[in-house]
Design goal:
This protein is 35% helix and 11% strand. By secondary structure, the chain is α/β, with parallel strands linked by helices. The strands form 2 sheets. It has a 3-stranded mixed beta sheet, covered by helices on one side. A two-stranded parallel sheet has the order 4-5.
């Protein structure tokens, strides 16, 4: 027994140093990240994981002598040429004179634009541009010679009796109209103005 105590006394210092060294070694591993600690789940801002809609998309209506008329969605950087391609190109009955002389294929399109391509022999009264379009708006004057409340630009609307810049903007903001009477129900024009322009407008 006495011999055992003597041996323990001899090795007490080395054993103590070994234990202290082990504690220091483990502590160093933790501090140097060699032993990873459990990490709490990171919280991500909702904006980074929720896909956002493309706000640059716009819609236009293409009608007349094209192979696939309808409403299409394009980038706001698109041109009339892109819109015509999306509609399947010009039909064989499209007015070649109108396309070559009056249609601006390089014109930028705008949201809510209506492009109308006339058929051969169909005459459009109005300015040149996109289907009679002036400055990117939709058809200003239809084949009937009336101003289209769903397509006319600001200047064309202001040419109507009793309509100034403010009323013209109200008409544009109220689009689309399913009937001419909606000019009244949507309060785009007064009753007096409505009476004056009733025979001068259509739904184009």
């Amino acid at each position: 027994m006495e011999g055992l105590n003597q041996k323990l006394s001899e090795y007490r210092l080395p054993i103590g140093l070994l234990l202290v060294g082990g504690v220091l070694l483990i502590g160093g591993l933790f501090s140097s990240n060699l032993i990873s600690k459990p990490r709490s789940p990171e919280s991500f801002p909702k904006e980074s994981i929720v896909s956002q809609s493309n706000l640059s998309d716009i819609k236009i209506d293409i009608a007349g002598a094209v192979n696939n008329p309808g409403v299409f969605t394009l980038s706001k950087e698109s041109r009339v040429e892109d819109a015509i391609k999306l509609a399947g190109g010009f039909s064989d009955s499209a007015s070649k004179e109108y396309v070559s002389k009056r249609l601006n294929l390089s014109q930028k399109i705008t949201d809510g634009l209506k492009i109308y391509i006339p058929f051969e022999g169909e005459g459009l009264v109005g300015s040149s541009g996109v289907g009679g379009v002036v400055a990117g708006a939709a058809t200003s004057i239809s084949v009937t010679g009336k101003v289209g409340i769903n397509s006319a630009d600001q200047a064309s609307l202001e040419s109507l009796p009793g309509i100034g810049p403010v009323t013209a903007k109200k008409i544009i903001d109220g689009r689309p109209y399913a009937s001419i009477e909606e000019l009244l129900s949507k309060k785009s024009v007064s009753k007096a103005v409505y009476t004056k322009i009733l025979e001068l407008v259509d739904l184009n």
